[in-house]
Amino acid sequence: MMDLVELTIDDTQVKAEPGTKILKAALDAGIYIPNLCYISEADLPFGACRLCYVEVEGRGLVTSCTQPVEDGMVVHTKTPEVNKLRRTAFKLFIAYHDLDCRACWKNKRCELQRLAARVKVKLKTPEDFRGLPTDFIPLDTTNPFITYDPNRCILCGKCVWVCNKKSGQPIIDFAYRGYETRLALSSDISLIKEKCSSCGECVITCPTAALKPESSLGSTVSLAGGG
Ligand code: FES
User: Fold this and answer.
1) Which of 25, 81, 198, 216 can pair with 16 through a Cys bridge, CB separation 3.0 to 4.6 Å?
2) C-alpha 65 to ligand 1 mean position (Å)
3) From the alpha carbon of 50, which atom of ligand 1 is closest?
4) What ligand 1 atom has the least distance to the C-alpha of 156?
5) Which of 77, 81, 80 is nearest to 12 (CA)?
6) Distance CA 173, CA 89 (A)
7) How much is the pLDDT for 1?
8) Do 103 and 73 belong together in one domain?
9) If you average pLDDT over residues 93-115, what whole number do you get?
10) 87 C-alpha vs ligand 1 centroid, how far in Å?
11) What is the mean pLDDT of the chain?
12) Does residue 215 surpass a pLDDT of 90?
């Protein structure tokens, strides 16, 4: 049997298999670390959201979803510096997000709302950030299965990741640059027929209300798992 690695997370002794990432070891031990772009240990972490920062003694700040456990490692998940960085990372998500939650079809099932409470940030446009463009961007309805609302997209990339993994060729991908960055959904019917299994994983994985199934998918996609 494989020797387990022993480490300390917030004064709790934790054991994990070698190679396990700190985030997974912590969650398995019942220690919550905020995270958003993490999907599972089997999926490559892309370390994009920066919410899962922790402090490792002798090493400093690391993203816990990408950092493997080591014997004797001492991890702190809630130092003032960690909390500050985490809040800044979260504010970046909401700085450019439509925050009219009461008008949102995913209100109370949204992962951003859940995380806001966890990281103790109010869901309102951050005052300590430079103003960002807030013009309404038209919905993308070109795909027959999914409607994309760029105003509610936080560009976390989870849908791109799961789509790529499932289809081998992303039917959803990033497009444009800078403030203009958003998702582009393929409207190429032959590509969709060939590659898209209408699994609905992209919708389920989306932490916000950016992706919505059209009626053709609605019966097969359980939105309850989405946030
Ligand atoms: S969960 Fe680690 S960077 Fe997003």
Assistant:
1) 25
2) 5
3) 3
4) 4
5) 77
6) 22
7) 65
8) no
9) 90
10) 13
11) 86
12) no
